[in-house]
Amino acid sequence: MVVVMEPGSGDSQIARVVEKLKTYGMDADISRGEERTIIGIIGDEREVDFDSIASLPGVERAMPVLKPYKYVSRHVHPEDKVIDVEGVRIGEGLVFMAGPCSVEDEQTTLRIAEEVKQAGARIFRGGAYKPRTSPWSFQGLREKGLEILSKVKRQTGLAIVTEVIDSEHIDLVGQHTDIFQVGMRNMRNYALLSRLGGASKPVLLKRGDSSKLEEWLAAADYIVRNGNENVILCERGIRTFEDYTRNTLDLNAVVGAKIESFLPIIVDPSHGTGRKDLVLAMSKAAIAAGADGLLLEVHVRPETAWSDGKQSITPDVLREIIRSCKQIRDLE
Q1: Residues in a beta bridge with 233
Q2: 83-330, which class in CATH?
């Protein structure tokens, strides 16, 4: 069960709801978001009188939610969430996040940033910390990479999204980014997710490579439950038996996430395919499926990229993707 309080409801009204729930032997988990407070109910709901809870002052609605995710459920929040990031409204229109897999030297990174801005992207992506399967692979420039990202923002005005891989790094990364990215490896790092629930900046949550839709949304619940409603879902492909592509881009999840959740969702066709020759087609398919935007790996010279060059597109291809996707969205 979830109790949704009216916007502006006071502490005394919230306390009255909690007190009423305790008479039924229930515990309450209170999530205070920017817009409203949501009270999650813990315990056996069979004896709860929903109407009596819904009639309390300050309560907007009370409802049973039987799925493993409650706070991000569309039953709780019927309206689509729009997240403002430095004037870019994610969930309203299309947003394009683009840049290299890894932050490289300052000159190359700034050149890529200028190119993706001219192509029409509004948010720059680049990894300063790069968790890799092999300990011998390039792990990112770390603090130096974060400093380069800050320079990108100062010089281009682009908002920044970069990955945070450890709870200890949240404050440091937060000084240099506008959106915290949680990579697929950390989708189940519940300590990190909970800490990001207390952050003041949005979180881009990538789907784990072997995660079901409900597990992905339950991971988002860890963030929202701790007070941060500004979560952006990112479908980046799942692991299947198919080895023609790096991953299998699951566009069913775009539609499913829109049905089940109020959160905006973007698609990463770069990791979803692992092949630059498939990125344009899958980008268009993602927008046709209802995605709110794309996360794309772009490099001025993919053949020399420090990581993921095989799936990185050029700025010219990015321009074509943005043009084509806007045409598709205009058809709706």
Answers
A1: 205, 265
A2: alpha beta
